[in-house]
Task: structure prediction
Amino acid sequence: MSRTATYVQQGERIDYTPASSSIAAGTPVKLANGLYGIADRDIAEGETGAITIKGVYSFVAGGTISVGAPVYLSNGTVTDTPVDGACVGVAIGAAASSGCEVPVLLNTVPNGAVVKTITAPAGSSSVADLIGALTSAGIFKAGE
Result:
């Protein structure tokens, strides 16, 4: 019987190589399909470094946030208002107002959270139009 999987690493941190610019330590990095990581240290362009994809990080809140709310990254702050494709995790503490720190459990999405929104093409009304919009947004692949 052939082996199906081989252990690679624990999975809390993964290798990341920035292609177009350096990444500063503490910077959120949006990966494929809405997955986020935080750079552990400065990573030079074209060099491989570690980013953390599991754990709790403190973010600056863009407004009031309740414990358990899904939070979305927007312009350097987190908010509980859905932002296209930017759900970074779930708040495990509260923020009383904008500018407060809020602890966020990375890449954890509670039931009912909006992970990614799409806009249907103008004038679309058919299932084919909807499938086309989902495919363009990277949410759907034919045959899956």
The helical segments are 127-136.
